[in-house]
Amino acid sequence: MASTRFNQPDQRKVASSPRPKGRDNAKDTLCRNVLIYGHCRYEDQGCAFNHDPNKTLSLPSDMSAKKTLSVDSPAFTPATLSAPGKSSAISSQAVNAAPFTPRGLASGTVTPIPQAETEPATFNPAQIKEFTPQQTYDISTNPPANGTAPDAQMPYDPFSMSSVADAMPSAPYNPYLQADNSAMPSNGAAYYQAQPSFAAPAQPLQYHLYAPIGPHREDLTPYQRTVHDFFIPNSLREDLQRKSEATRQVMPNSGLPRLEKEKYHSLVPLDTNNNKSAAVFGFPSWVYKAQKEDGKYYVLRRLEGFRLSNAGAIGRIKEWKHIYNGGVVSVINSFTTQAFGDSSLIFVYNYHPMSKTLAEHHFSPTNRYGHRAPANEQVLWSYIVQIASAIKAVHGNNLAVRCLEASKVILTEKNRVRLSGCAVLDVVQFEANRPIHELQQEDFLHFGRLMLSIAANNQHISINAKVSIEQLLRAYTPDFRSAIVWLLTPAHVPATKNINDFLASISSHLVSSYDASLHANDALNTVLAGELENGRLFRLVTKLGLINERPEYDGQEKWSEVGERYILKLFRDFLFHARDPVTLRPQVDLGYILTHLNKLDAGSKEEIRLISRDEQDCIIVTYQELKKQIQLAFAELSKPATVVKGGRY
Ligand SMILES: Nc1ncnc2c1ncn2[C@@H]1O[C@H](COP(=O)(O)OP(=O)(O)OP(=O)(O)O)[C@@H](O)[C@H]1O
């Protein structure tokens, strides 16, 4: 079995010793390292200076040359502290020792140690550094004294944290310090100043990991983590897929026209019943999903048999276009058309796939006795908050909703309601020209009746003296009852009711509703973060798929199997064709595949062993090298075609 090792360069360089520059008497000059530290680490590595202090220094006889710096050492008694007139214990020869200039350092960057000319040197060991050749720093033997890293360019390997952790600066990277260098810790100042650009993070972000972002359930033990944790929850996925399917649904033989002038086509009816009542708008209405030529989907509400007598009526749409609220289905446009074989008025709205009206949701029988359980009060509060917010937006624009009916409020997601059918009555009843404040006061009444009908589980509820609201709502809290009573009680003219007063009175429910929506947002963000990782791995698998098993490329018969691409073929087998070592069954563990793909995407320096199918080749390679090969092979595939004789490559 042939074993190959990819990219195993030994990064370490052999430590070199300082060389005296142009000094013939180097051998007679005591090495400054010996003088300061008592020994020189480069003595056996070619340091040309003298390492025997007895040769040059008149040291006391009991002082060993190997003895390290101590307070008793006369060599290290600061001269400034010595009594005037007393001579230094260090010989003048030692003071004149040649200064060490590290090889390779630019002269401008080194502070030269001043040579003593006439006066005895003021010797301060703290000012003099031991000579250290560049790029030979050994972290194990030379721990950084001031918390600085020896080599700021040292690559960071997220998969070998233990070995690299030691090499990281003792002051950890703090992203909050990026903007403000003045906040840097003083002990690490030298290290940070040495960085070419502090704007760049000190270490690569670990993009390859599934970061557990978002709210977590603490009651799950580790073994309960499943493959599903990596993907979008089934219920949400199904919901989104159904919506996507509904959006793309077409009805080839529906017989519905194409609105050439307005550029709408592929109409699909959304009405679930054929009994068209004119109760709400005064005209039978139909709802269709349609696609515009811009590729987007809209809803067309058609009022059958409507004749526009006042051209200004459609102009009311303009004001509705300004309403931008989460509780209102946006009004896009309005026009008349003869395309349906009659004179129809069309309103265009945003399309919310798979919606249901509140009437469909709350008043269609569900159990086998034809009954439906009464609505939960929390759900009703959620509706109240959303509809009140929508009304505030509408009233704030000097408009009125006018059609707050259970069949004209749609549920677009769980407990998420929007007012549909806005603007219709403004156009249809344009000539009635009713005062806006009157219509707004009616909105409160319609709102109250809508909530009461859902709470009492009766779509056609009528309020009469015989049955009080208190009785109807006895299953609900006093808070809820008083909110409904407030909405249903007409204001005594000239006093008027105001949506802001209503919102103030339900403030505690606004807060709960807001909190619930924050939680929902957090949950969706968590899902989104997971999908981000999946998208990344999908791109990687796509590249592998494009390279592996490609029969021919660029005139090469087995392009995908020769050269460096051979290891990609072996990696594909390692990833997808692995077998359980005991049972020899195929390894179908998604966790295994995700782990290796993530390491590959991160370009980890961890090594893996790839074995060919015939077991004749065994290659030890890092994920980093594999990643490089994928990038190279993919770049080769993506290069522009070159035209050759008789064909095109
Ligand atoms: N903007 C919209 N996006 C998606 N679907 C919508 C939209 N507006 C209405 N719908 C859907 O269209 C269908 C028909 O709506 P419509 O308002 O006609 O209700 P309806 O129950 O048929 O009322 P009516 O009896 O008054 O016609 C409903 O299922 C509703 O959910």
UniProtKB/TrEMBL annotation:
Annotated Pfam families: Pan3_CK (PF18101), zf-CCCH_PAN3 (PF25586)
Keyword list, A-Z: ATP-binding, Coiled coil, Cytoplasm, Metal-binding, mRNA processing, Nucleotide-binding, Zinc, Zinc-finger
Highest taxon, organism lineage: Eukaryota
Region annotation (Disordered) ranges: 1-26
Any one of the GO BP annotations: mRNA processing
GO CC field: P-body; PAN complex
Molecular function in Gene Ontology: ATP binding; poly(A) binding; zinc ion binding
Coiled-coil boundaries: 508-546
Residues annotated as domain C3H1-type: 25-54
ZnF segments: C3H1-type: 25-54
Binding positions (ATP): R301, S407, K408
Region ranges (Knob domain): 547-649
Transmembrane spans: none
Compartment annotation: Cytoplasm
HAMAP family found in the cross-reference section: PAN3 (MF_03181)
Record comment regarding domains: The pseudokinase domain, the coiled-coil (CC), and C-terminal knob domain (CK) form a structural unit (PKC) that forms an extensive high-affinity interaction surface for PAN2. The N-terminal zinc finger binds to poly(A) RNA.
Quaternary structure annotation from Swiss-Prot or TrEMBL: Homodimer. Forms a heterotrimer with a catalytic subunit PAN2 to form the poly(A)-nuclease (PAN) deadenylation complex. Interacts (via PAM-2 motif) with poly(A)-binding protein PAB1 (via PABC domain), conferring substrate specificity of the enzyme complex.
Record PANTHER family: DEADENYLATION COMPLEX SUBUNIT PAN3, PAN2-PAN3 DEADENYLATION COMPLEX SUBUNIT PAN3
Family: Belongs to the protein kinase superfamily. PAN3 family.
Function of the protein: Regulatory subunit of the poly(A)-nuclease (PAN) deadenylation complex, one of two cytoplasmic mRNA deadenylases involved in mRNA turnover. PAN specifically shortens poly(A) tails of RNA and the activity is stimulated by poly(A)-binding protein PAB1. PAN deadenylation is followed by rapid degradation of the shortened mRNA tails by the CCR4-NOT complex. Deadenylated mRNAs are then degraded by two alternative mechanisms, namely exosome-mediated 3'-5' exonucleolytic degradation, or deadenlyation-dependent mRNA decaping and subsequent 5'-3' exonucleolytic degradation by XRN1.
Protein name: PAN2-PAN3 deadenylation complex subunit PAN3
Species name: Hyaloscypha bicolor E
Organism phylogeny: Eukaryota, Fungi, Dikarya, Ascomycota, Pezizomycotina
